[in-house]
Amino acid sequence: MLSTGTPATLRCAGRIASSRLGHAPSTKLSNSASLPLRRLSTAVGTPAYRSRHVGRISPLLAAGPSNPNTKRHFTSGHPRASKQPFQFLTAYAFQGKARSSEDLPQEGDASSSASTNERDGTPPAATKPQIGFPANSEIGRWRDELLRGGEAGEDSLMCTSMGMAGDVAIGVADGVGGWTENGIDPSLFSQALMFYASRSASQASTDPSTGGAPNQILSEAFEHVLKEPLVVAGSATACILTMNSSDGTLRSANLGDSGFVILRQGTGKQGVFHASPPQQLGFNTPLQLAKLPKEWAQEGSISNTPKDAATWECTLQHGDLIIVGTDGLFDNVDAKIEIPQFAKFIKEKHHASYAARHAAAGEKAAEGKFDSLEEDREFVQVLATNLVEYAKICQSSTTKQSPFEREAARYGIHFPGGKVDDVALVCCLVIEH
Known about the structure:
This protein is of the alpha+beta class. 23% of the residues lie in helices and 20% in strands. The chain contains seven helices and 16 strands.
C-alpha cells in the first residue's frame, strides 16, 4: 500500500460488531473483540497507480493545514485536447471483514486496491484465502485477476472498459450474509453477478438501444446468475454505473443499500451533486436480487428483480468525482458530509505531496508545472485506498456516530458506533478534453 513512515494522528480503537445483520430487524445487537489501532494517510511514497499495492498507510502532515477558503477541483489540470471529449480515471479498493479470530487485522494489515489506468506488469502479491468460486473456475480466475491477491469478502465489484472506446462501466455488489445460516456462501452470488455484468458491459456501448444501459446490464447478469450451477441460492444488492466518453452521460441502476455519490465543485455546501438514496424495506433490510429455490421459498422472502432498480442519469463535467460503494462504506461514512470533506482533504495533501516529491526529484515540466494527468491518476488511487481505510476505522469506533447508528435509532435500536462489514468501492475522476 502507501507509506511515508509517520505514525498517525487520526486513530480510533474499536471493536468488532456482529456480522451482517439478518433480513429482519433486531433490537439486540452484540459487540465483541477489540480491533488494533489503524493508521490513515493522505500521501504516497511510491506511484499509486500500479496494478496493486499493499502496505501501511501513514499520514503526511508536513504539507501544512488545509485552507478552508481554498477552492480546488479534484482534477489538477485543465480540460485537454483528445479524440474523445471525456476520459474517466478509475481505481478501486476493497477489504473483507474478519470472519474468525485468526482473521482479525494485525498491525500493518491494510486494504487492497488497484487502478485500471495503468498496467505496469507488477505480479500479484501473495493471494489471501478466498471465499466464493474455486480459483480454477472461470469466475474464480476473473475474481483473482481483479483482486490481485486481495480479498473482498462477500462484496464484489467491477471496473471495465465497454465496447465503445473510452466508455466505462463500474459497479459493486454485496452478498447478503444471512445466507450463511442456511449453509450458503453469500459471495458466490455477488461474484457471479459482477462477473456477468462486467462481461455484458464489455460487449456493449453505453447506448441503451444496444443493451448497454445499467439496468439492462444488471438484468442480463442476473439471468446468467439464475442459470449458474455453482450458485445454488443467494441474494445481493447491486449498483452499476456507465459513463459515455462522447457526451459525458452517466447512467445508473441501483438496487438496495449499495450506492454512489457524485462530487462537483460549487454544488451545495459540501459539493455533493448527487447521492443515491438506499432502497430498503425496513431497518437493515435492503431490496435485493435473489436466487431462491422453490423448496426454500416462504412467506416474507425478499426476491426483487432488476426492474425494481432505481435508475438515474446526468451529464458529467470536468472534475466530477464519482464514488460507488457497498454499504460497508455508506453505513459508516456519511455520503453528504464526510465523503466530500475526506476527498478534499486527500486531494490537498496529495497535491502537496506530489509536488514535493517531483520537485525533489527534479522532475519539473515546462514553466514549473507537473504532469497533471499523472497526478490525477495517482490521486484517484490514493483516495480509493484511503477511503477504505477510513471506513474500517469508522467501523471499529464505538464513539463516532455512524449513519448506521442514526438509522438504527429511528427504529428504536441502540447500536453505538460503526458496523463492521466488508467494503468495496470504485472511484472515478472525470476529465473533459
